[in-house]
Amino acid sequence: MRPGLVRAALCALLVLAPAAHADDACRMALGRGWAPATENYGVAVEKLFAGDTPASFHVTVLPATGEEWGLLLIPGTGGGDWTLRYARADERVRVWQDGKLQLRTSEAPDTQDVPIPAGVATRLLEEWRSVLASAAPEGSAAPFSEKDAWTFLAGDLRVSGLEPGCDLGERMRDQLDLLIEASDEGPAKRERRWRALEESLDRLAREREAAFGAAAPSP
């Protein structure tokens, strides 16, 4: 190939490189609102887990089989600690019974409540809201799947879909693990979890900016 053609080809590759990088950005199978055929089910499970206490943050898993589970952050009063709740249904909520689809919500779920510093809770809510708003831009529809359905509520933003994947999703699942572990530990160990969580949120923020840019879109 002649030198001029080589230079032209290299220039073309450089022009295309940013677009290729953008295509490689984190693409989670998420969309705004509820996934098809899950809203009544999801609302029932979230109410079962929260009871009469309004939560500002929900992660709720509606599995294809087995018991539903979720994590909630419940605001404190007067700027005090929030409540972290890990909840799991005592028995599967969504079942076929006598040839009909039933939502069983009479059994109290198994719950673990612990205090979480307000600063940690609000930062997690805000950072997750930014990630979810970027991963599921306005106008995107939550996908249907026969696999486990995940639904998120971060403030006023509802996003649903499949279990978060790619680097951002792995970071988010690591943070869920930290929260679940903290829900079953004493104060000293929880303090270590909060420090680890804040460090992980720092990394999540950097990864979000690398994938989507610094500014998170409005809902």
Please give a structural write-up.
The structure is a single chain. It contains five helices and nine strands. The protein is globular. Helix 3 (118-135) packs parallel to helix 5 and helix 4 (166-182) packs antiparallel against helix 5. It has one domain. The chain has helices at residues 3-23, 39-50, 118-135, 166-182, 187-212, and strands at residues 30-32, 57-62, 69-74, 82-88, 94-97, 100-103, 110-116, 149-154, 157-161. The protein has 219 residues and is an alpha+beta fold. The model is unreliable at 1-25 (pLDDT under 50). The strands form two sheets. Strands 1-9-8-2-3-4-7 form a seven-stranded antiparallel beta sheet, sandwiched between helices. A two-stranded antiparallel ribbon has the order 5-6.
